[in-house]
Amino acid sequence: MIILDQVSFAYPDGTQVLDRFDWHVARGEAWAVLGPSGCGKTTLLYLLAGLRAPAAGEIRVGGERLERPRPTTGLILQDFGLLPWATVRENAALGLRVRGFYGPDGKHAPPDEVVERIHERVDPWLQHLGLLEVADHYPAQISGGQRQRTAIARTLALNPDLLLMDEPFASLDAPTRETLQNLTLQLHSERELTTVIVTHAIEEAALLGRKVLIMGRPPTRRAMIIDNPAAGQGSYRETPEYLAIIRRLRQALEAST
Question: pTM for this structure?
């Protein structure tokens, strides 16, 4: 699904983030990217989204060289990215309306997609995510968890095959964060999405990533990968294996920095 081949990237000030970096993600895998602030986690996500371009090397997603954002890649940001003057339903429909403006050109929308009744794509996700009761509310009138679920609904209405999430639950309270983590696991299981979730929280990486990419002090030159095959099980938080993988991730993170 994702292939990074000898990818290098530096910030405008010359700070090297990735240096001839190789990384492979298979279709349907659930990954977490873990590392301290400033290590380049978000930069890596933006490279995968096609919002930034590598200085050298090649990124391939879905078998094609990535040169611009893909219409079937979903990106969910920490600040939700909602329009304050639009209702929950209007925000959830925004991506589909943009696609409708451009038409099925293969760049902004899949070439074989025509959406005639947007509400038929949006409302089932509002129902699934528990948002129908607030569908006519504005972002300022709903909770942080509801705003994040609105962002998720907007993304999933586009039928992505790759879901990228940048610390999506960092600003939420603990109960809401746990609820949305469980929702993410459920959606991955139901839709067999390829997911890459950036986080700085070891416990979240252990819960959501069946594979965890560790990033330390930049530049990152090789992929340090921790396998976590039990992640995604409903009771995983309560198991000795979960505590053991947290210890392993903490040790790996300390070693990398």
Answer: 0.89
